[in-house]
Amino acid sequence: MSAQMRIAVAGAGLIGRRHIELIEASRDCVLAGIADPSPAAKDYAQARNVNWYADHRALLEQEKPDGLIIASPNTLHLPMALDCAAAGVPALIEKPVTETVAAAQRLCAAVKRTGAPMLVGHHRRHNPIIKAAREAVATGKLGRLTAVAGLWLLKKPDDYFEVAWRREAGGGPLLINLIHDIDNLRFICGEIAEVQALTSNMVRGFPVEDTAALLLRFASGALGTVTVSDATPAPWSWELSSGENAAYPKQDQPCYVFAGTNGSLSVPTMELWSYPKNPGWHAPLLREAVALSRYDPLAEQLRHFLSVIAGREQPLISVEDAMGTLAVVEAVSEAARTGLIISPGRIMEQAA
After folding, report:
1. For the packed helices 101-114 and 77-87, what is the interaxial angle rounded to 10 degrees?
2. Cα(89)–Cα(65) distance, rounded to whole angstroms?
3. Residues 207 and 167 sit within 8 Å (Cβ to Cβ)
4. What single DSSP character describes residue 183?
5. Partners of 214 in the β-ladder
6. 257: which strand partners?
7. Which of 27, 122, 134, 263 is the most buried (most CB within 10 A)?
8. Angle formed at CA 42 by CA 38 and CA 46, multiple of 5 degrees
9. Are 121 and 195 in contact (CB under 8 A)?
């Protein structure tokens, strides 16, 4: 790039600071400012000699950045993104795109009306592991996909729940964590047509769930199961299995299995299982390792965002696409509450 783009960040919490570090490390952009009303954020900005704003609207007006990364609490995603759309400023919105599907539809309408580029931060789509799994399914390497199994099992420490909203509805593993896995499964396997679910708060007794079991029907006809719990010592989760984030000790275990008529793939261990000849359960299975490149998906997401701003690339995950992931999560909650089979498509129709 001939000139560095000026990228601002709204929200200087954990993920916001990670975005800031990546901006500072990039040769292609500079940090244009930080918007966050907290005293800690003000001190953080001053320590970096960066302009600080209590309100994102003042930042947009004063700095006129080339793009804004929205890393604020979920409730602020919609108003901040709407303000970006009105100002014509491209935005990278952390997941979930908004709190509800209805809110996401409002944002979709604003994007269509203004044409402001918007990218949603389901950053795992940029991970080479997820890209390789998607390619294996899309190219037919597994044959026709028949079944998918997903696990998200780990134990969050007790002090994690000292933050009040994490003990309340919307603060459990479904919306905070599972939404990532749902997006991975949609990206790899295609749309999810139907959902059944059970949830439990048996371990902690909080108003929000600590455990859930999902049954999925994909539009392709494949079936899937996902088991979720943040209350058990276990290695089977993307956080612990993938090695994507150095804050979590890496475990050499899979968290997804994709099964097809010609082969099966474990992810992120990337072991491909198939019969070299004469398929059948008495024959020996062949195990192959899928070769991968390695890079930081968050850094790749920033590179992609800069290219979206420049008009060289289309968003890998648009607001409309991210709304589809959010609709599945809402369908899971409704299915658990009612005991019914719920269609994410119906969730979106009802919110319109």
Report:
1. 10
2. 7
3. yes
4. H
5. 197, 226
6. 149, 266
7. 122
8. 170
9. no
| 144: nearest Cα among 222, 217, 257 | 222
Place of tokens 């920033």: 302
Alpha helices by DSSP H, listed for the chain, are 14-25, 39-47, 56-63, 77-87, 101-114, 128-138, 173, 179-189, 238-242, 297-310, 319-338, 344-351
Give pLDDT tens digits for 273-306: 999 988 999 999 999 999 998 899 999 999 999 9
- Write down how long the chain is: 352
Global pTM exceeds 0.90: yes
Contact assessment for residue 96 and residue 76, using Cβ atoms and an 8 Å cutoff: no
Regarding beta strands 145-153 and 223-229, do their DSSP bridges make them parallel or antiparallel, or are they unpaired? parallel
Q: What letter does residue 99 receive in the DSSP assignment?
A: S
| 253: three-class secondary structure by DSSP | coil
8-state DSSP, 285? P
| Token digits of residue 122 | 């389901």
H/E element, 223: strand 223-229
Query: Nearest 5 degrees, angle CA 195-CA 198-CA 203?
Result: 145
CA distance 22 to 15: 11
